[in-house]
Amino acid sequence: MSHSVISNTLVVRPVSSIMLYLCIGVLAALLSGCVTEYSGGTQMSADPDATLEKRVSLARQYIGVGDWENAKRNLELAQQIDPNSAEVFEAFALVYQSTGENALAEAQFQAALKADPSLSRARNNYAAFLYSQGRFVEAEREFDRVTGDTLYSGRPMAFVNLGLSRLQLDQKEGAEAAFTRALSMDRRNSAALLEMGFLRLEAGDTEEAARYHSDYRANAPTQSPRSLLLGLEIASAVGDWDTMGSYELALRNLYPDSSEYRLWVERQSR
To answer: Over its length of 270 residues, how does the chain's per-residue pLDDT go in tens digits?
Structure first.
């Protein structure tokens, strides 16, 4: 199923919101901004390793601006230098995933991990790909392996992604453990704070849910549709009608087309 429905308060975790967290791992691998092309054909320097690195870097810049053909051209040139480069395989996977060629994307992800099983960024992005395909058991397994890499810079978000995967598998205790680990490494992790708020609310602990929501608001520059929904749910649970009205107004005015607002309207009409 594409979302989990929480009993009692009927909080729904829309996949669209969850995917925002998962995309962070993919987008962190891309470089945005202007693209600087290099001249001189395949040979960009006398050092093959340096040339390979430049070609992959350039390809990532093209991926960042959505220029798939030039990204693939540079990756093909890089692959001429090293046919077994995990970095090249991963970048190809990101291109194919972005263009909807999922079978090719998966083959490239698997090739990257075969070439370098320790490349946690590629494994994290592969796990995000699996999640996007609804293959939550496999995604959970891969995210779990990523979190075991203590040197991986994206480890806190990997724990968040692990928790989200476990929510899809109805493993709420395991999800809470993953979010707690994420917060132990980054107390301001907004994704983990928000999901912990929903979990605590589901458990009937409105005070803790409110604390997580308050911490989220203190660290997030703006309130997302999900954070407004959490505020609505907490206010409704404690009977704070003034606060509930304020959150409802904000959700309607700021995010009228969001799945969270549609959910709230549907619930009120029952």
So the answer is: 333 322 222 333 444 444 445 544 444 444 444 454 544 444 455 688 899 999 999 999 999 999 999 999 999 999 999 999 999 999 999 999 999 999 999 999 999 999 999 999 999 999 999 999 999 999 999 999 999 999 999 999 999 999 999 999 999 999 999 999 999 999 999 999 999 999 999 999 999 999 999 999 998 888 999 999 999 999 999 999 999 999 999 999 999 999 999 988 888 877
- Closest by Cα among 227, 233, 186 to 20: 227
Distances (CA, A) of 202 to 17, 127, 187, 215, 250: 18, 27, 22, 18, 23
Q: Residue 27 has which token pair?
A: 């987008």
Interatomic CA distance for residues 257 and 262, integer angstroms: 7
Domains, the chain, with CATH or none: 31-117 (1.25.40.10)
Contacts 24+ apart (CB under 8 A), 46-50: 48/81, 48/82
The pTM of the full predicted model, rounded to 2 decimals, is 0.82
At residue 251's C-alpha, the angle toward residues 248 and 256, to 5°, is: 125
Q: Which of 150, 185, 220, 162 is nearest to 22 (CA)?
A: 162
The Cα 98–Cα 85 span in angstroms is: 20
User: Phi-psi category of 165—alpha, beta or left, where left has phi over 0 and alpha has psi -120 to 50?
Assistant: alpha
